[in-house]
């Protein structure tokens, strides 16, 4: 639920508003979550790179 709120909040906020907030100084989602919940500090996110084999060829 927190992540859903986070995504909706930033989609509805303009970039100029975003720059004024403390969120702009954060480097990752882990940094943002760590402020609210110290138990989230040690969470590591592993995002595997996308394979180009999954994409269909595109003709222009």
Notes on the protein architecture:
- The protein has 60 residues and is mainly alpha-helical.
- The protein has one domain (2-45).
- Helices cover 42% and strands 0% of the residues.
- It is built from three helices and no strands.
- It has helices at 2-12, 15-20, 29-36.
- The longest helix has 11 residues, at 2-12.
Question: Kindly state the mean pLDDT as a whole number?
Answer: 66
In total, how many beta strands? 0
- Name the assembly state: single chain
Order of helices and strands: HHH
Structural class: mainly alpha
Low-confidence stretches: none
**Alpha-carbon Rg, integer:** 16 Å
Helix content: 40-55%
Given the structure, what is the number of helices? 3
Q: How many angstroms separate the termini?
A: 41 Å
Tell me the layout of helices and strands.
Layout: H1 2-12, H2 15-20, H3 29-36
State the gist of this model:
By secondary structure, this protein is mainly alpha-helical. It is built from three helices and no strands. The chain has one domain.
Descriptive terms for the model:
60 residues; mainly alpha; 3 helices; 42% helix
């Amino acid at each position: 639920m927190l992540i859903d709120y986070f995504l909706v909040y930033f989609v509805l906020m303009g970039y100029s508003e975003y720059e004024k907030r403390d969120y702009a100084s954060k480097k990752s989602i882990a940094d943002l979550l760590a402020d609210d919940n110290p138990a989230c500090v040690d969470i590591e996110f592993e995002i595997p790179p996308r394979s180009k084999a999954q994409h269909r060829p595109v003709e222009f």
